[in-house]
Amino acid sequence: MGGCAPHVTDGPPAPLRRRPPRLSLWTVLQGVLSASLLLLFLLPIYALFSEAPFPRVVAALQNPQVWASIWLTFYASGIALLAAAVFGIPLGYLLARRSFRGRAVVESLVALPVVVPHLLVGFGLFLLFVPGTPLHHVTVALGLPVYDTLLGVVLVLVFVSAPYTVLASDLSFRAVDGRMIEAARSLGAGGPDAFVTVTLPIALRGIVAGLLLSWARAVSEIGGLLILAWVVYPSGLYSGPVSTTISVYIYNLVQLGDLQDAAAVSSIFLLIAFGLFLAVRLGERYGRLPWGRGELLP
Questions:
Q1: Closest to 296 measured CA to CA, from 284, 279, 278
Q2: What is the count of structural domains for the chain?
């Protein structure tokens, strides 16, 4: 009895076609919300660039006052960053590793500059160093006047930015496993040695992240400066021309109604800031920095 021969195909079976995944409502909602926030970031930047005619940008690039303001901003924020590291990291370690009476008060005091309006910071420092006060006499006698000087700028920047270093240091030191510190001490390391060889290296990335936030906050400050150091005259560590920080410089242009020049200077500073962040990203990608991509900055 004859039968039909089985059909034999040559080659491997055709792969099954997968249907593209369907977008869920949750995914669409994430996309819409994310795009809305990105638009909030991008549209003001677009408005600044569109309001700045190219000739005005070129003129701003050739204006020595603009570069003096940019240099003063980075110079003062660099000093403030150094002060935040010198004074903020030990305070963060104290809060993380020591229990003492009044600790909650100290923690609240550290967080206070983050939430108060920064005009209050400038006003408070102004009252502290106003002519006739004891601190005014002391600073003048030492040759370190505060009002409308680099020192006044730095004091404001430290006040508003150092809390980020303190808070980041506190969290980073808390994350260090105490057993590792005890193991180092059991091997003969004293308190300072254990801190330098164990605690600090482990907490370093979080501390650096806090320092970057402090620097970014210092660069963008304006509120306190409008009261204490609206103009910066040469004195002490600053021997440059009479100038202002870049935020105050742009504010003055807006107050004068010179919107195109204000937009031009803002565009230049935005490009500089973008270049710095891009350099950090490229440094992460190509291993030029002591941390990998996503380990420090998001």
A1: 284
A2: 1
Count of Cβ atoms closer than 10 Å to residue 15 Cβ: 6
Q: If you ran DSSP here, which 8-state letter would residue 130 be given? A: S
3-state helix, strand, coil in the chain (%, to 5): 70, 0, 30
Residue 11 within any structural domain of the chain: no
Query: Does residue 272 carry a pLDDT above 70?
Result: yes
Q: Which residues, at least 6 apart from 232, have a Cβ–Cβ distance to it below 8 Å? A: 72, 148, 149, 150, 152, 153, 238, 242, 243, 244, 245
CATH assignment at residue 104: 1.10.3720.10
CA distance 78 to 74: 6
Of the pLDDT bands very low, low, confident and very high (cuts 50, 70, 90), residue 205 is confident
Radius of gyration of the chain (CA): 28
Contact assessment for residue 157 and residue 146, using Cβ atoms and an 8 Å cutoff? no
What's the pLDDT tens digit per position in 95-138?
A: 998 888 888 999 999 999 888 898 998 999 999 998 888 998 89
* Residue 128 structural domain: 67-245
**Quick check: helix, strand or coil at residue 194?**
helix
Note whether residue 175 is domain-resident.
Answer: yes
pLDDT at 227: 93
Asked, for residue 86, whether it belongs to a domain, the answer is yes
Q: Is residue 85 part of a domain?
A: yes
Taking Cα atoms as reference points, which of 193, 194, 200 lies closest to residue 172? 200
Q: What gap in Å lies between CA 185 and CA 194, rounded to an integer?
A: 7
Which residues, listed in sequence order, are joined to residue 235 by a DSSP beta bridge? 238
